[in-house]
Amino acid sequence: MATDTTRIVAVDTYDIRFPTSRELDGSDAMNPDPDYSAAYLVLRTSADGPEGHGFTFTIGRGNDVQVAAIQALREHVVGRSVAEVCADPASLHRDLVGDSQLRWLGPEKGVMHMAIGAVVNAVWDLAAKREGKPLWRLLADAEPEWLLSQVDFRYIADALSPDEALHLLRRGKEGSADRAAELLRRGYPAYTTSPGWLGYSDEKLTRLAHEAVADGFRQIKLKVGADLADDIRRCRVARAAIGPDIRMAIDANQRWNVAEAISWTNALAEFDPYWIEEPTSPDDVLGHATVRERVAPIRVATGEHVQNRIIFKQLLQAGAIDVLQLDAARVGGVNENLAILLLAAKYGVPVCPHAGGVGLCELVQHLSMFDYVALSGTTEDRVIEFVDHLHQHFVDPVVIDDGHYRAPTAPGFSAAMHRASIDTYRYPQGDFWVADLAQQQNTEVPA
What we know:
Layout: E1 8-17, E2 37-45, E3 52-58, H1 63-71, H2 74-77, H3 82-87, H4 89-98, H5 100-103, H6 110-131, H7 135-141, H8 144-149, H9 162-173, H10 176-186, E4 188-192, H11 202-214, E5 219-223, H12 228-242, E6 247-251, H13 258-267, E7 273-277, H14 285-295, E8 299-302, H15 309-317, E9 323-324, H16 333-347, H17 360-374, E10 384-386, E11 400-401, E12 404-405, H18 419-425, H19 431-444
Parallel strand pairs: 4-10, 5-6, 6-7, 7-8, 8-9
Antiparallel strand pairs: 1-2, 2-3, 4-12, 11-12
Helix pairs in contact: 1-6, 4-6, 7-17, 9-16, 10-17, 11-12, 13-14, 15-16
């Protein structure tokens, strides 16, 4: 049989920005005017066939810094054998994390770590396409021993040993075929944040909350944390719109000190919030533990800004969270998220991923679906966030049916954007931004 000599020949990068701040989509107490953006990359190969697509999410300015970080990783990627790196994505993950001069900028956190995640995710996209499977199926079909080889246990072995992880993966295989069939039939439960952006009027909140319930969602989420009186009013409006039987989570986006988080959350307790999300700094493990103790039975959730598996380990060890919210693009890609899913399974904490943004729904659905099919084996108290923004820019966008994510069937990680979207929203050369700048200049010219 002929040897596959295909190599990665280029890492193309793009600064993609969408003007979401103009409609206050995505607005919250900490981020009042986000422009949803993606530092986007394409792995091109020396042969006709699939490319690998990946990205990480930002909210506007700073996306250029994130793109530069991805470009700094090129020398580790270009020239690699496609067959070898797809057979063992951990080999690239180890090299990217192990570059000592770039590691100094973290280690394993911040802009460089997010860049590593984008590149690693693009390799997994390429691997899944070459196998002809959606990523969730590639992971679910994999042998437990191979999945174990993809996990970096450095710094987490005191909480989760390789033997324990292998036991969890082998146990997850039991009944996985039946769960995969059920996933394809029913999908994976979702909740929606679309009604709850802080900049929306009460009328828009009410309309979108009614629509969410009608569309089959059993949980919505509201942004809080800027003004207590305003939060009380908005929670009252939302609860009146959805009734007593729909879960309502609240999200402070790291706005509070610990004592303020406790008093503010308890002030909203009359509206029966299901969880309080990001009540304080994502790095404050003991602060989260204190909040959790003092606001029970309201659950504490965090994770979208948790920078690596080590902080997640500590949150779990300290009993600081009730809900773990991993992010597909914040940490070092699929490999590190496998470690985080295994930690959550070890500690019995449900995973309800962060999504929304640009393409985060598309990515993270695969991780939760693998977790259900071949690791935790359950969707009880587990939901994936859904935000109805920007999906039209993706080749294989998410599909929501009766409040559930439909399982993707197209090969890959659902990461590829339409070429027309890239050409339109690439910053600042894209058609939209060129026209926008011209309009601003015309407006500024005195009459």
